[in-house]
Amino acid sequence: MKGYKAFNSDLTCRGFQYEVGKEYVHEGEIEPCRNGFHFCKSIADCYTFYDTNDSTRICEVEATGNVKEDDSGIKFCTDKIKIIREIVSDDRRGNTSVSNSGYCNSGNRNSGDWNSGNCNSGYCNSGNRNSGDWNSGNCNSGNCNSGNCNSGDCNSGNCNSGDWNSGNCNSGYCNSGNRNSGDWNSGYWNSGNWNSGIFCTETPKLKIFDHESNWSYDDWRLSFTKNFMSNCPYSHSFFVGAGSMTDEEKDKHPEYKTISGYIKTVVATEEDKQKWWDDQLKEDREKVINELPNFDAEKFYKCTGIKVKGV
Question: Does the domain spanning 2-93 belong to CATH 3.20.170.40?
Answer without folding.
Answer: yes
